[in-house]
Amino acid sequence: MKITAIITLLTVMLSACASAQMGTAWTDNFNQPRDPQIAEEARSFIIKRQGCDHFRGEPAYDGKRLEFLTQQIKELCTGSDAELRRLRAKFSDQPDTIEALLEFEDCIEFGTVCTEKK
Known about the structure:
The chain is mainly α. Helix content is 60%, strand content 3%. The chain has a two-stranded antiparallel ribbon with strand order 1-2. A hairpin with a 5-residue loop joins strand 1 and strand 2 (33-34). The protein is globular, with a radius of gyration of 20 Å.
């Protein structure tokens, strides 16, 4: 009886873990639906990096705007080259996550050393 209960409990726990790994529906910074199979850790990066890329493309038409853009870029972009490399290595066995990360340029930060894709 105890063995049956333990096996049932383990089955329920493993099913819960498997469904949690499957992912849930989500949208990115541009309110676009994204693949639920993308790893949760990569999702946070994607949203932050989309913000970074958005502000990198904005015009600095006056001093106040330049100050605002500089602050946003500093907050959203700093460390993103290394983080992108780290996530690509960590999730190299997850094609959905890698595909999502490939939409980002490898080297965007000034004054950092990074390796271009080959």
